[in-house]
Structures are given as C-alpha cells and as structure tokens.
Amino acid sequence: MTTILVTGGTGTLGRLVTDRLRADGHEVRVLSRHSEPYAVDLREGGRALDTALAGVDTVVHCATTLRGGDERSAANLVAAARRAGVAHLVYISIVGVDRVPYGYYRSKLAVEKAVEESGLGWTVLRTTQFHDLVVGVLRVLTRVPFVVPSLGVRDQPVEVAEVADRLAALAVGAPAGRVPDMGGPEVRTFGSLARAYLDATGRHRAVVNVPLAGKAYRAFREGGHLAPGHAVGKVTFEEYLAARFGGGEDGRRG
C-alpha cells in the first residue's frame, strides 16, 4: 500500500483527490494549515513538515493561493521531500502559465521549474480553469445589475472531479514528467458562459462586453490559456450548472 500526502487536501481539488486515493486503498495524509494531525503552513516549513512527510512515497501538491507564497511553499516542500526520500512529486498547474504574463501564472510556472529541478521523480499536469472558478467569478459579477465579461476572451472550463480522477491516477503511477494538458470539452466565449450561468440561476442581468488592455489580457484574448487540442473533459458547463443549480441559486429560481 502506497503512502501519499496531499497538500491542500481540504480544498476543492485536494479533497476529491484524497477521496479517490483512499477509495483505492492507499494511505493518504492530508496536509493543510488547519487540518490535524498534519496542520502545516508550507510557507513556514519546519519540523511539522518533516513529520508529515516521514514514510511518504508520493506527494500530490495541490496547495496554492492567489495571495502569494507559492514559490516559497514549493521550495520548502521540495527540500523536505528530499530529506524524507519521497519518490514521486505530482504537481497540478494551469494551461498557459508559460504564455500568459499574469502574476499568478508566473508563480505557477516557477513552481513547475522547482518541481522539475527538484531531483525527485516528478509529474506535472496542466489543466484549464475549473467550472467552480468560472462560477465564482460570475457570482461576483452578477452582484451588480449587469455582467461585464471581457470582450473577446474565451474559456474552456473543465470539471474538477475529472481532474481529480486524472491526478489520482498519475499519483499511483510512475513519474511521467510533463504529461498532456487536460482541457474541458468546449471552448466558449465568456459572454456565453455568463448567459448560461444567469439562465441556470434564474437571474436577470444585462451582459455588456467591455474590452480591457494590457499584455495579460491580450494573451488571454489570443487563447494562451486554452487547450483545444486536449479537450478531453466530458462534463459541459451547462451540465455542471444543472447539477449544481437545478433549482436556481441557493436551490430556488427567481
């Protein structure tokens, strides 16, 4: 039986990866800042991280934050994994981190490099945006009487449960390096995703297209974050919305 540690194991993706690995009979340790017995802040590292990694065969690194610190966390994790003799480090990244000059993407790319140069066996999977993230953005936008998607931007949302299946399979396999990207089944305009969300939640908002400026926006507009050649996801955005909001936002329409 393999002992696997999942960082960010209480998060949207990490929780599902943990469930799948445990269902397959693996011993799984969940590492997060507030989850005992392996409550560790990766940005700090230290003895608690060494304890969490003792006897671990594989690490699935799902922990991340938009507030900064991913590179420091990765450096601490890699160093501790080396000390513990971990055989396989699996990292979940994002399609386009090498093409879109956006701060968070640059950080993810730097972590990829740290994983590749770690001296450990490694696997990196890049995916497009999760359905959940798209809905989170749209929920914020629909707090006002109109929705303002960026003109010309498209997205290719993928179901997080499908990503968890893929990541769990990679975790129990041999180190594979950079594996093929994983994208959702459809490339959609952000405006069409907004309209689908409004329809599913029974909201009435005007959808207004507003162009933005800057290098990052240009890269998004040009599709640097898309993987149309790897549209392997099965669940469409509408199917996800129907499952989550069958009765509208918070279970009721109107």
UniProtKB/TrEMBL annotation:
<feature type="domain" description="NAD(P)-binding">
    <location>
        <begin position="8"/>
        <end position="134"/>
    </location>
</feature>
<dbReference type="Pfam" id="PF13460">
    <property type="entry name" value="NAD_binding_10"/>
</dbReference>
<protein>
    <submittedName>
        <fullName>SDR family oxidoreductase</fullName>
    </submittedName>
</protein>
<dbReference type="InterPro" id="IPR036291">
    <property type="entry name" value="NAD(P)-bd_dom_sf"/>
</dbReference>
<dbReference type="InterPro" id="IPR016040">
    <property type="entry name" value="NAD(P)-bd_dom"/>
</dbReference>
<dbReference type="InterPro" id="IPR051604">
    <property type="entry name" value="Ergot_Alk_Oxidoreductase"/>
</dbReference>
